[in-house]
Design brief:
single chain; 263 residues; alpha/beta; Rossmann fold; disordered N terminus; 13 helices; 2 domains
């Protein structure tokens, strides 16, 4: 009998949970862990992780951002990869952290090291681990919103669609403008609420026009923004993080729906 090929070594992966997942939608974190473990990773959740600092960064508070970034760099040292179920947080770690420490070569080197190991969840599964299908089923129609940071900073576009195409029972119906911003933009929606509301109104109309029963995306902030608008309009469209569907965990209430704890 031929000798079986040795198993590939397990990657030691740290999950960057993100603030919104931790406080609003922990199910996304559990889905991320399942997807990573199914792909052969050893997953850890560093207990001392904090916010990535994006809100402070977006408002121009570089001192606070630097202080937060130092904590994050410490918490995620030594892992093979750092994975976030969020393009915006992933982009903060991989694109913006190194620019914070131009006056400190030692910290800049550590920030660059972290940046080189940081990935958005779905991109990591497809582009780094080579995952091309998932063991899930979803009976229904979905549409997918391309969140700005994941798309424009990290190139996340075809990866989620490739995995969604592997799910029996799922039909993807594309929006006319899936790449157009939903109007959330982190602190943008707080600074410019009228503009933000107009933008999400256009997005909700595009979503509804697909006839899909479920909206998916990879950033919880965008999902919460769109879910709120769809609910206020009475659209009846359910909203989920793409990781929940890919992990086969779409039996829980959708974003914005009451969770009674019943299963």
């Amino acid at each position: 009998m031929p000798t079986p090929a040795p198993a590939a070594p397990s990657r030691r992966v740290a999950l960057f949970v993100t603030c919104l997942v931790d406080l609003v939608r922990p199910a996304v974190g559990f889905a991320a862990v399942k997807l990573l473990e199914d792909a052969g990773c050893t997953v850890e959740v560093p207990p001392l992780q904090v916010c990535c600092g994006q809100p402070a960064y977006n408002t121009g508070d570089r001192a606070t951002t630097r202080a937060i970034a130092r904590q994050v760099i410490d918490a995620f040292e030594g892992y093979d990869a750092v994975v976030a179920p969020s393009g915006s947080c992933g982009g903060m770690l991989s694109h913006h952290y190194p620019t914070l420490f131009d006056d400190d070569p030692a910290l800049k080197a550590r920030a660059e090291n972290l940046a080189s190991r940081s990935h958005e969840l779905i991109s990591f599964l497809v582009d780094i681990l080579g995952v091309d299908k998932v063991a899930a089923r979803f009976d229904g129609t979905v549409t997918y919103h391309d969140s700005c940071s994941g798309l424009r900073e990290l190139g996340v576009k075809q990866q989620p669609r490739r995995l969604l195409a592997s799910i029996p029972g799922l039909e993807l119906r594309e929006m006319k403008t899936p790449e157009v911003c939903c109007g959330f933009g982190g602190t943008f929606c707080v600074k410019y609420p009228e503009i933000s509301n107009a933008m999400v109104g256009e997005k909700s109309a595009d979503i509804a026009a697909t006839g899909a029963g479920t909206l998916l995306a990879g950033d919880l902030g965008c999902l919460m923004n769109m879910a709120g608008k769809l609910q206020r309009e009475g659209q009846g469209i359910r909203v989920r993080h793409v990781a929940e569907v890919l992990a086969g965990m779409a039996d829980r209430p959708a974003i914005g729906e009451p969770d009674t704890g019943a299963r």
